Every structure is written in structure tokens, then in C-alpha cells.
Amino acid sequence: MPALEIELISDPERLAALKPEWDALFAEQGERGSVFMSHSWYDCWWMHFRGGSELFVLVVRKGGRAVGIAPLMRRWLNLHGLPVRAVCFMTNGNSLHNDFLVHEPDRDEVLRELSRYLCEERGSWNLLQFHHVPADSPNCSALVERLSRCRIPFHLSPTYDSPYLEVGGGWQQFISSRSQRARKTLRNIGNNLWRCGEVEVSEVKSYKEFLLVREGILQVARNSWTQRVGDSLAHPVNSAFFDDLARHAAQAGWLSLWLLWLDGRIIAFEYHLRGCGKQHALRASFDEEFRRLSPGAFLEAEILKRLFDEPGGVLRFDFGGSFDDYKKRWSDTSLDHVTLNTFNGGLYSRIAAFHELTVVDAARKVRDRLREKHGKA
């Protein structure tokens, strides 16, 4: 049986050259994968959000063939007031899900090799942080088992439950399963919007089409609540990233940008990625000028209606992020995500582990009790 070999990739040019191998392993994932595991996603992410981080991508090969990829970076993190040198996924708030790419038949061997390498390199990090991993990922449980054998402190904690819908059975069957109140609200929203002018919903799939509507999308973003909180699509860093992502996604056939028009003007949009049998809602905004018309809710309903009635379409609609109240109008199901923090066992890391797992955890419990007490008062 061929021995496993591991390569550390720290050079961006080497990362770019890895694309054929990465794409081949990604294609094997099928419906188990997501566009957030693709080379295009990470290449684009690294270009725009790397900051002062260092690439720390690990490639596991067997007989010269890539059978595992860990899309990691090394950076300084602030762990509730303590600076730590961390090895973590290439991720930020735009990354809905994180995981390792693994060739299924070689899963145990690959994770054993990754764990061995990371443990041997513990002098180069204080913390391993694997953030927002789907709790049902077979990689997650296997990695916990492997890392626990290193006899260094680790902590597995829930991060968020991400709502989704299994798409099937047609729109009428789905909408009839929602509450009478929800159905009435949607009818009223549609009637109010149609009374205001000519309404149209369109989907953009090509980069050429994207460029034609780009300024209209940015104008909506500038007039949205996301602009007030500083995370608008119109923010220069976000704008550059999503422009580049649209180009990559269109080339791969993943771009799915939905627009709501009123009298020829874009008043709401949803920026989606579509691949591996899933539709991911990555970003959404509506123009505050039209808030009273609930354009976001109307557009969401129209998107779902078309996806449910599309022959041979996606199997799952991923709302992205946490289970916010407005998403409960559509979904009763969610996928839990977890974060795994592993400390390297050195003196400073033991201090950081005690601080994070004991002091911070105790402070959270006190805070939660106080909130519960005041909530009942």
C-alpha cells in the first residue's frame, strides 16, 4: 500500500498551481461537498481577505495523487483578550461552512496523517481552531478522536444552527405546509408590491450580465441596513471580493444572483452560489426606501417558488448563517455547526486554554444566568 506524503503550501503561486489536483478531489465530493470547499472559493477568498495571514494549506497524497486537502492559514488571533498564534481555516463572516476535502476511502488515513503533522508542528502554533464545521461532518468526529490522542487540551463548542430546506414536492405542497398566518402575510406583501408598479424578478447567471446590473446592486447595498453596520456589499473590500467571486462562480456555473425590480429599478437582491445540489444564500439586501413593502420577503418567496418548481433542480436550499426569526417563516430544520479549539500544551497555551475553557466559560454562564434572571423579572 503506498505511503501517505504531506506537503505544506505557503506560497500563493503554489496554491494557484494546485488547482487541477484540488478540482479533481473536489469533483469526487459530489453532493457531500459544497462550493465553499472549492479551489475557486479559497483562491478568491485569499486574494481579498488574507490580511497579514500566512498560507498553511496541507495536501496529503497517496501514490502521487491528492487524497486530502486542509485549507488552512496561520494568523494571530485575539482569544478574548489573549493574543495567540493560530492555525485555522481560511474563513471569515462570508464563509458559511468549513471542512476538509478528503477522498472517502482514505478518510481515516488522511485525518491520521493531518493530525500527526499538526501535532508535530505544534511549536509553530498556540491554537488550532477549526471554525464553523458542520456537526454531521464525518471529518469532525474523526479529527476529534485523532487529536485527543495527542493528549493536549481541546474544546468542542456549538457555534450556530444553520437553517435549510429540502427542496422537493413542488411549491404548492411546500407553501401549504406553512402556517395560515405566514401564507396570508405573503399574499398581502405581494398585493401591496404589485399595486406600486411593474414588478419583475430575474436571475443573473453570467459575469457579463452581472457587470450590467452591478451598479444597481451596489446602490441597493448603499441604501440598506448593512451599510449602517459597516458590512455592506458596497464596502470596498466586500465589493472587490464579490466581483471576483461572481467571475469565478459564473465560469464554474455556480452564480445565481436574484434581483427584484420595481418599475425598472432594482430594490432588492440575493447573491447565491449554486453547486453540489445545493443553493446557498450568501448575501441579501433591500433598499430601505422600500422597507414598508417588505421587498426582501417577497423576493425570498419568489426564489423558493421557482426552485421548488424547477424540474431536476437543487436538492437543498441553504439559508446561510444562524437561525434568525425571519427564516423560521420558511424552515423548521437546521444543521448544527461546531468549532474545535485545540491547544498545543506549552505553558502559554495552557494559560490560554485555562483562560478560554475555564474563565471565559464561567463568565458566559454568569452572563446567561443574569440575562435569564432579568428576562423573568
* Succession of helices and strands: EHHHEEEEEEHEHEHHEHHHEEEHEEH
Structural class: alpha+beta
CATH 4th-level superfamily of the largest domain: Gcn5-related N-acetyltransferase (GNAT)
What CATH calls the topology of the largest domain is Aminopeptidase
Unreliable segments (pLDDT under 50, ≥5 consecutive)?
none
List the helices and strands and how they pair.
Blueprint lengths: L3 E6 L2 H6 L1 H11 L9 H11 L4 E2 L1 E6 L2 E6 L1 E8 L2 E8 L11 E2 L4 H14 L6 E8 L3 H11 L5 E13 L4 H5 L4 H16 L3 E6 L2 H16 L2 H4 L7 H17 L2 E8 L2 E11 L2 E9 L8 H14 L7 E3 L14 E11 L3 H30 L1
Parallel strand pairs: 6-8, 13-14
Antiparallel strand pairs: 1-3, 2-5, 3-4, 4-7, 5-6, 8-15, 9-14, 9-15, 10-11, 11-12, 12-13
Helix pairs in contact: 3-10, 4-5, 7-11, 8-10
Write a short abstract of this structure.
The chain is an alpha+beta fold and 377 residues long. The chain has helices spanning 12-17, 19-29, 39-49, 107-120, 138-148, 171-175, 180-195, 207-222, 225-228, 236-252, 295-308, 347-376, and strands spanning 4-9, 54-55, 57-62, 65-70, 72-79, 82-89, 101-102, 127-134, 154-166, 199-204, 255-262, 265-275, 278-286, 316-318, 333-343. The protein folds into two domains: 4-160 and 337-376, 3-Layer(aba) Sandwich (Aminopeptidase); 168-314, 3-Layer(aba) Sandwich (Aminopeptidase).
